[in-house]
Amino acid sequence: MTTLLIRKLLVLIATLSLSANAWGLVFEVTNAEEFQAALAATGDSGSDNTIMLRGNSFDGNFRFNAKNSGNLEILSDPGEAPLIDADNQAYGLFIDLREASYTIKISNLRITRGISRLDGGGLFIAANKDFPSQVILKDISITNSAADYFGGGLAAHGLHSIQIEESAFEGNTAKRGGGGVSIESKTATLSDLRINENEVRPSPFPGFNGTLPYCYPISAFQGASPEADKVNGSNGNPSPQGGGGGLLLWEGKYQLKDSEITSNNIRCFGGGAAAIAALGELSILRSTIANNQGSYSLGGFSASEQDVHRTIPLIDAARAGSSIRESVITNNKFQLSFANLTPIRRTI
């Protein structure tokens, strides 16, 4: 019996209910084993499927691999918000869209204690621009997760479009950038978000003041992969790090509205932005960006200087079309960083 048939049989046996809808299958799952079996079956089928989470807790590390183009919706009953507790073992949920175009919708889900040796500790969505995919996230909470590279809470890279609304990213950490969230998408709409108390905390660079972590602004990133970083680091210079303690936005067109970006941090010497680092076009509307700070310095200016917000421009070489309207920006150190440079996309 093939592996595919075994997976499908497991789902048929394990799920509480399995029914056909007008477009595909509906899987109703009550525990972690059933959830992973449903993810495996829907990834292989490539049709339009729904996974309904019928439990309060789904502890473990979950993966969806799209083999054929299709749609997948993961949801729960109204008012419910099941929890994925990754127990600091691996990703909370890894969605791999690198081999097929897909539409992913996820709503009413909490993820905590995810950890990644690459990107996206809580939720990692890896797509391929050759296979345009779109993602919709609503009422998502990702907390206390960590990534060695980008997006401690969420990393969504290589997408055609992404929409995130009514969601929270709090208490997450990344070593390179995007302590809370890292997004690379052609277009993105981010609304009613809470991105609070996240942090970029690079590994110490022993050659610089002994153990002081060193950062470059996000515009200085050189490495496109862990392998490339090793090469770049071999010439005696620290591998590029830092950028976006709360939110890191790669090349693309982004709209951030009705959101709070507060109390995020970047702990390193030499560069980076504590609140938002954006390399593309960013429009900010009716949002609050407050109490974000760097721990050491940016461009040679001490974090203790009262006029640091004046000596370092709020928007530096912003892309045409970037704007901030009807927003409150206050009590930040190293507030926002816009770079008029094209980045090298992160790969895995």
Explain what this protein looks like in three dimensions:
- The chain is built from four helices and 30 strands.
- The C terminus is likely disordered.
- It is mainly β.
- Helix 1 crosses helix 2.
- 11% of the residues lie in helices and 41% in strands.
How would you state the average pLDDT, rounded? 76
Nearest-angstrom radius of gyration? 20 Å
Q: Strand-residue fraction? A: 35-45%
Oligomerization state: single chain
- Overall shape: it is globular
Q: Major beta sheet, specifics?
A: 21 strands, mixed
Topology:
Elements: H1 3-14, E1 17-20, E2 25-29, H2 32-45, E3 48-53, E4 62-65, E5 70-76, E6 83-85, E7 93-97, E8 102-112, E9 115-116, E10 123-127, E11 134-143, E12 146-147, E13 154-170, E14 173-174, E15 181-196, E16 199-200, H3 226-233, E17 247-249, E18 253-257, E19 260-262, E20 265-266, E21 269-270, E22 276-278, E23 281-285, E24 288-290, E25 293-294, E26 297-298, E27 301-302, H4 308-311, E28 323-325, E29 328-330, E30 336-338
Parallel strand pairs: 2-3, 3-5, 4-7, 5-8, 6-8, 7-10, 8-11, 9-12, 10-13, 11-13, 12-14, 13-15, 14-16, 15-17, 15-18, 15-19, 16-20, 17-22, 18-23, 19-24, 20-25, 21-26, 22-30, 23-28, 24-29
Antiparallel strand pairs: 1-2, 26-27
Helix pairs in contact: 1-2
For this entry, give a set of tags:
single chain, 348 residues, mainly beta, 21-stranded mixed sheet, 6-stranded parallel sheet, 4 helices, disordered C terminus
Quick recap of the structure?
By secondary structure, the chain is mostly beta strands.
